[in-house]
Amino acid sequence: MEDTIIYFKQNQESGHNNYFVYHKVMETHTGLLTHIKVFKEKPYAITGMLIWENDVCINCVIKNRPFARYVLSLPMHQYEIEVKGNYNSRGQFDVKHMRIVNIDSYIALIGTPE
Question: From what superkingdom does this record's organism come (predicted)?
Answer without folding.
Answer: Bacteria
